[in-house]
TrEMBL record:
<dbReference type="InterPro" id="IPR029058">
    <property type="entry name" value="AB_hydrolase_fold"/>
</dbReference>
<feature type="domain" description="Dienelactone hydrolase">
    <location>
        <begin position="28"/>
        <end position="241"/>
    </location>
</feature>
<dbReference type="GO" id="GO:0016787">
    <property type="term" value="F:hydrolase activity"/>
</dbReference>
<dbReference type="InterPro" id="IPR002925">
    <property type="entry name" value="Dienelactn_hydro"/>
</dbReference>
<comment type="similarity">
    <text>Belongs to the dienelactone hydrolase family.</text>
</comment>
<dbReference type="Pfam" id="PF01738">
    <property type="entry name" value="DLH"/>
</dbReference>
<dbReference type="InterPro" id="IPR042946">
    <property type="entry name" value="CMBL"/>
</dbReference>
<protein>
    <recommendedName>
        <fullName>Carboxymethylenebutenolidase homolog</fullName>
    </recommendedName>
</protein>
<dbReference type="GO" id="GO:0005829">
    <property type="term" value="C:cytosol"/>
</dbReference>
Length: 243
């Protein structure tokens, strides 16, 4: 059932004043935040079903930029409607047909070209959440230009080729994610052991539900906060190790 992976409640979210700005790259709009000094290191952030305008994802972009990376979140939905929390989950499968997380190659290429040719990026990492986690998983199998990836709760199902990653990839999961079973994570681990020739890591965070890792600090519940902060530090450490 395709609807399963994304059935999570966004809950109340606080407002967020973004630090970056919006740009246009060929046919794609993107949100960009850069450090105050020049750097040749960049990170692409892939949004979830709620799209590139969602405050949580912009917070993540700003956070990564604050660690010294040119950081960019392109609109992988190319101007089409993101999923909205008011939409009916019965329609999700149809929506997903037009928003396939495995059909992001063209947009990724446009953004990679921009980062390399216009911004002087030498190393480029990628992080994604949910829908974006699946996109990252896919791109780390396909695009050798991406130096390292972090996939948050995004599993590609039913494909042998999902295991031969091209560059180091870190998979982050929540223990209580009702959309990704423990069996699927175990299978991923077994298959990566068998096929993967690069460094990888899988980590499951206790008690965490789908979507836990992109919350802004003021939206975190006290019990979850330590795990969200740990996942965030782990994500940044992985990027810093390779990018």
């Amino acid at each position: 059932q395709m609807a399963d992976p994304f059935l999570y409640h966004t809950g109340r979210r606080s407002q967020y004043g973004c630090l970056g700005h919006e740009i246009q790259i060929e046919h794609i709009k993107a949100y960009v935040c850069t450090p105050s000094f020049f750097t040749d290191k960049a990170v692409i952030v892939v949004h979830d079903v709620f799209g590139w305008l969602f405050p949580d994802i912009r917070y993540i972009v700003d956070l990564i930029a604050s660690h010294g990376y040119m950081t960019i979140c392109p609109d992988f939905f190319k101007g089409t409607e993101p999923w909205k929390s008011t939409d009916h989950w019965a329609d999700f499968a149809d929506w997903l047909k037009d928003h396939d997380p495995m059909k992001v190659d063209k947009e990724a290429d446009v953004v990679l070209k921009y980062l390399k040719e216009q911004c002087g990026a030498k190393k480029i990492g990628i992080v994604g959440f949910s829908w974006g986690g699946m996109a990252v998983h896919h791109l780390m199998l396909k695009n050798p230009q991406l130096t390292a990836g972090v996939s948050h709760y995004g599993i590609i199902r039913d494909s042998e080729e999902r295991y031969n990653l091209l560059n180091p990839t870190f998979f982050i999961f929540g223990e209580k994610d009702h959309t990704i079973s423990y069996d699927q994570i175990t299978l991923l681990e077994e298959k990566l052991k068998q096929y993967c020739k690069v460094e990888y890591k899988i980590k499951v965070y206790p008690g965490q539900v789908h979507g836990f890792a992109q919350l802004k600090p003021e939206d975190m519940k006290p019990d979850d906060k330590p795990y969200i902060e740990e996942a965030r530090k782990d994500m940044l450490d992985w990027i810093k190790m390779f990018v």
